[in-house]
């Protein structure tokens, strides 16, 4: 089951200048819990936004570059190649950025979305989840608190058959 996992604000904002525009520690914990042990598929800029490869995950980086070869990841040049690399994983994840989410959405069976309640200046956006194609299976609200400046909702969508 191919899953897109993201945190996006009310207008599908993902980030600005290759960084998130919020800090939600509980969302980071959830991301780690869900993706550990699996393939994570991402674009080059997303990979380069990490200080180092994330532990206990197979990094698959999609780039147009033919000479990109950072340590700790598998480099491919298309979404189809990335999916072929992850074919034996029962739950690979697409983790961004915006263009990679758009490329991956037609292949996805599931979307794990953290909807951040707010509006932000952004230059990167998550694709629209159209209700005719997706059914929300779970929704769990978290209010803002001392560690979280914004309220947010974990939403799980499954593709309609």
TrEMBL record:
Q: What class of enzyme is it?
A: oxidoreductase
In terms of InterPro entries, this protein maps to: DHFR (IPR012259), DHFR-like_dom_sf (IPR024072), DHFR_dom (IPR001796)
The cross-references to Pfam families, in alphabetical order and at most eight, read: DHFR_1 (PF00186)
Identify the CDD domains for this entry.
DHFR
Q: Which domain of life is it from?
A: Bacteria
State which pathway it belongs to: Cofactor biosynthesis; tetrahydrofolate biosynthesis; 5,6,7,8-tetrahydrofolate from 7,8-dihydrofolate: step 1/1
Catalytic activity annotated for this protein? (6S)-5,6,7,8-tetrahydrofolate + NADP(+) = 7,8-dihydrofolate + NADPH + H(+)
The EC code for this enzyme is 1.5.1.3
Q: Which UniProt keywords apply?
A: NADP, One-carbon metabolism, Oxidoreductase
- Residues forming the DHFR domain are 1-159
- What family does the Swiss-Prot or TrEMBL record give for this protein? Belongs to the dihydrofolate reductase family.
Outline what the protein does: Key enzyme in folate metabolism. Catalyzes an essential reaction for de novo glycine and purine synthesis, and for DNA precursor synthesis.
Record protein name field: Dihydrofolate reductase
């Amino acid at each position: 089951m191919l899953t897109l996992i993201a945190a996006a604000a009310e207008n599908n904002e993902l980030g600005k200048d290759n960084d998130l525009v919020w800090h939600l520690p509980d969302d980071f914990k959830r991301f780690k819990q869900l993706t550990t042990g699996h393939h994570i598929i991402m674009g080059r800029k997303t990979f380069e936004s990490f200080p180092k490869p994330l532990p206990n995950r197979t990094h698959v980086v999609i780039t147009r570059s033919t000479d990109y070869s950072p340590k700790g990841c598998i480099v491919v040049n298309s979404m189809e190649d990335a999916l072929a690399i992850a074919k034996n994983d029962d739950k690979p994840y697409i983790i961004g950025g915006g263009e990679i989410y758009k490329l991956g959405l037609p292949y996805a069976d599931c979307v794990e979305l953290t909807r951040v309640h707010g509006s932000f200046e952004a230059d990167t956006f998550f694709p629209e989840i159209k209700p005719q194609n997706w059914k929300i299976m779970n929704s769990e609200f978290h209010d803002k608190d001392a560690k979280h400046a914004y309220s947010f909702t974990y939403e799980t969508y499954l593709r309609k058959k």
